[in-house]
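Hi again,

Forgot to attach this to my earlier email, sorry! This is the prediction with zinc ion bound. I've pasted everything inline since the attachment limit keeps bouncing my files.
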Amino acid sequence: MTSTLLSNIGELVVHAGHRNMSDSALVVDHGRVAWVGPASEAPPTDRAIDLGGRAVIPGFVDSHSHLVFAGDRAPEFEARMTGAAYTAGGIRSTVRATRSASDDELTTNVARLVEEMRRQGTTTVEIKSGYGLTVDDEARSLRIARAFTSETTYLGAHVVPPDADPAEYVELVTGPMLEAAAPHATWIDAFCERGAFDADQARAVLEAGRAAGLPGRLHANQLAPGPGVQLACELGLVAVDHCTYLSDRDVDALAQSGTVATLLPGVEFSTRQPWPDARRLLNAGVTVALASDCNPGSSYTSSLPFCIALAVRDMSMSPSEALWSATAGGAQALGRTDIGTLEVGRRADFVVLDAPSSTHLAYRPGVPLIWETWADGQSVYQRTPTNGGLRG
Ligand SMILES: [Zn+2]
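Structure tokens for the complex follow:
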């Protein structure tokens, strides 16, 4: 393995509190960040790359996605945009499509979405099951996801499938389905919401998971106030996701427990729900992460730059805070200490922006600013510059 110096960096974001604005350099060696500092003091390396004043930021850590599915739900989106409300029940149409898809079709779709993420700067992704909802289909979804990431999450408790009895289904999720899923899963999750699972059911799922060696995470307080955030904090979960409707008690519990609040603004964009109040959480000392929730129903975006732009524009996060939440915050939401920042010793997962500073992520929304993505010290995506002009 060769050591590489990246120099002439316009802005180097080691983490949100450490942004070097001029002539910064970074050395990558053996897949790790080996050195950061002013270019004039850089150690000798095997090769050097001049980044021409572009910014370098940590790779995005997308701690919440649902990539194992078939089909899409564009008509449902169109109906919502012309006045229909979002309900958890739409998940069932994706369950039908996913069950009837082949392994190859599901794998091809995950590969397409992971590639889409890489092109937008994501270097770590968590992937959930939850569109199978049978013993075999949940195990198969997780097995497929595992080929792409070590951060796989068993979400048999996504919704109660059509025609199933809720109590019997929870027994299946906490029994034979858990047993089949556990070898392929790192985490367990549940959707605690009216129309999905109540607090007692979610607790049963999370406790069974913990007993099987799977720590929990939770979908909660997305569509209305509810007991999910309190439950997550009481159980000491690493993260609770959505957090759109929070009481003062919920905010206090998050601040005291240290459970990360993962906000998913692609969902509010795509369902026309109110934005989660990031400012209130940050002011209370809660750790906030941003993730895509990429799924075909409520948030069909794989772009963390887009989520950052929404968080800055509509959720009162500063550009630095939003970037931290989509990198270091995502890493904390996955309990990871090897990724999320560019401190020496961390994994060399980073993004070169075709812009002089990370502020451009929100300042230039919708613009493809990812110049290059590096994962594990290797370039895994590079934009090919073209000379062609637009036609008249
Ligand atoms: Zn989700």
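The chain has a mean pLDDT of 95. Residues 60-333 form a domain with the TIM Barrel fold (CATH 3.20.20.140).

That should be everything now.

G.
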